[in-house]
Specification:
The protein is globular. It is an alpha/beta fold. It has 8 helices and 10 strands.
Length: 274
Amino acid sequence: MYRTVLENLISAKNIYFDTVSPKSIISEIIPSFYSEKFPIYTPTLEKLHHFANTNSIYFKKYLIEIDKTKFISYEGDVNNFYLNAKKYDTSYQPFYPTWILSSFLLCEWLRSNQNKCDEIIDIGAGDGRIPYCGSLLGIRSIGLEIDNSLTNLQKYISKQTGVNFEIINADASNYDFAQLELKDPCFVVSALPEMGEMFIENIIKKVRENRIDSFLIVLLGSLVKRKFSNNSNYFGWGKIIERNNLRIIHSMNLPTHWTNNNSFETKYLILRQR
């Protein structure tokens, strides 16, 4: 299911921006119904739409058809949250989310792969779309977010949709992960290399200090940002990977709002300790 949905989503995304040309800062699509191109269990698909419909960042939606498949287009804005994040000294990445369906596909891979994790900890969880999708798929999911306006939004969405995940308003750079009693976690860190190198180093250090010996970490890099990074190896993460003895076990290209207007996607790297 994962590969089928991802391939068709990327194809639909390119047509969406070429033909519909949405003007909003936040623009994405979710298929309206289960189909061969998007074989997502109907109640799960409905919950993805429910997330968007209860999320205050979206202010516009409409039905469109792309390559004989019906989608709902959701458009919105995150400027208020973006500006609010600037008041936190340790906020390395303002809220600028991945697509809802991309979040679902990332969690689906983590659930189904032989390297699957028991817990997903989304560091800088924003509106909670990754832990929301993880919870939908039966994974213990935790959203760690420094901005209380975003954690309040997470709580509202969780209450309205009935999809429960753990919501923590805290600074990840000094958070005590031991209190979560993690077994085999995956840490998702949505920070681009040029903004988050020191932050990632500190997170890995904190995880190891808490004697979490087996873990996955998901990092993202974009071809758009790559030329500005200090190290172009592995999309800017080469030095981090080498210093922390990590190895890439998988990578995937997912639509995100970072790369909406490009013909390529955002690169997600999934790493484990060597």
